[in-house]
Amino acid sequence: MPEPLSTESTAFRSALDVIRGVEPRVADAIGQEVEDQRASLKLIASENYASPAVLLAMGNWFSDKYAEGTIGRRFYAGCRNVDTVESLAAEHAKELFGARHAYVQPHSGIDANLVAFWAVLAARVEAPALQRAGARQVNDLSEKDWAELRRELGNQRMLGMSLDAGGHLTHGFRPNISGKMFDQRSYGTDPATGLLDYDALRATAREFKPLIIVAGYSAYPRLVNFRIMREIADEVGATLMVDMAHFAGLVAGKVLTGDFDPVPHAQIVTTTTHKSLRGPRGGMVLCDDSLVEQVDRGCPMVLGGPLPHVMAAKAVALAEARQPSFQDYAQRIVDNSRALADGLMRRGATLVTGGTDNHLNLIDVATSYGLTGRQAESALLDSGVVTNRNAIPQDPNGAWYTSGIRIGTPALTTRGLGTGEMDEIAALIDRVLTSAEAGTTSKGAPSKAQHVLDEKVADEVSRRAAELLDGFPLYPGIDLS
């Protein structure tokens, strides 16, 4: 007699059956995605695996509700249940991060950053302009005063980490809307060490005098001293904003504390709720008392209707992160990242900054293996190892082909892999990249995109990766067969 299905298996099977009754191709794609993720040696630093409880919290009737406004102050009636889940998510966030205020409506990281930018602009540019004009709100301004305020809002400066040093596109770079909002200048890293140069940053801030200094990264493998960042910001009269989207789980798990925890030091902190925090795809803003009013105007200032079903999932994920086991998980992320770095360096790989203090590593594949990032990414993917190419400081191959590969450990740590497995993964990565060669174009010229890899090597690594993952099943309590 077969064993009864788990509650989780029954829930997800039933959901897929309902979907299949309307559009079977969607149900098939969902099922295939689970299988693909189970079979992938996922080393993308910005990806993770949400729990079944988080996943299930997103699929419910909250999806049908409009709830513009804030808790208790909505533009739509009938939002008491939305108020409940939003309040829960905000309360969990405040307790988890020790924040004075939490705003959990942003749909994504860029939305969270836009709310933060405009909250600072509202407090530091708009509010003084309203006071000078004797107006309560912008609708009360004369056409002349409104035109002057618009000009002033569009003439502010931002200082953020350069992209090739590990910053993010949403920190004021021209292809992104943030770069069209601000006059932006970048700070970088020491060319010799790859580490943040706080003295150079201070000198740039003194000369540039930005309204906002943005700290935080997407591809910097070391820690940031936020106490020093706040000192620099205060010295030049800037607001310190920290985007901790990548390392929020390490802050929540109390791995990053003191000078390395941004929340006590920055006036405003943004994050995603997935990545190392292991929740649903979404964003969040934390702030001190000086910006509460402006942040809570995120809708309608930047956002439209919030996503109550995702806020429900955020509440569940943040509740999970408050459990003692999450601190152990966060520490294991860093332990695994360091073990992976050690394994790669022992095999001759060159890592940006010579190692890591957080969840990610950046391999200089051009120096180590004579490949571009794009070639290395493709060769690894052919071998069952999922990574992403990334620029390195002063990258000679630019932001598209790149000279680096970024790898992270949050997802594999969720599956239960430990430091011993990280060394074996380092061996697999090295095996692929030492075997791969740069390819040529259709005309026989050297290519930055094409690679050549012996199929036997790709098959060997893929098989070993699969065997490794078999010992650490993903969602072992869910059987969809």
Protein model, in words:
The chain has 2 domains: 61-321, Type I PLP-dependent aspartate aminotransferase-like (Major domain) (Aspartate Aminotransferase, domain 2, 3-Layer(aba) Sandwich); 324-470, Aspartate Aminotransferase, domain 1 (Alpha-Beta Complex). 47% of the residues lie in helices and 13% in strands. It contains 20 helices and 16 strands. The protein has helices at residues 7-20, 24-39, 52-57, 80-97, 109-133, 143-153, 177-181, 198-208, 226-236, 248-252, 292-295, 298-301, 308-321, 324-346, 365-369, 373-382, 398-401, 410-415, 419-435, 455-470, and strands at 41-42, 69-70, 73-74, 101-103, 157-161, 183-187, 212-215, 239-243, 268-272, 283-287, 360-364, 385-386, 388-390, 404-408, 437-440, 446-452. α1 packs across α2, α14 packs parallel to α19 and α19 (419-435) runs antiparallel to α20. The mean pLDDT is 96. It is an enzyme of class 2 (transferase).
Write the layout of secondary structure elements.
Blueprint: H1 7-20, H2 24-39, E1 41-42, H3 52-57, E2 69-70, E3 73-74, H4 80-97, E4 101-103, H5 109-133, H6 143-153, E5 157-161, H7 177-181, E6 183-187, H8 198-208, E7 212-215, H9 226-236, E8 239-243, H10 248-252, E9 268-272, E10 283-287, H11 292-295, H12 298-301, H13 308-321, H14 324-346, E11 360-364, H15 365-369, H16 373-382, E12 385-386, E13 388-390, H17 398-401, E14 404-408, H18 410-415, H19 419-435, E15 437-440, E16 446-452, H20 455-470
Parallel strand pairs: 1-12, 5-6, 5-7, 7-8, 8-9
Antiparallel strand pairs: 2-3, 4-10, 9-10, 11-14, 13-14, 15-16
Helix pairs in contact: 1-2, 4-13, 5-6, 8-9, 14-19, 19-20
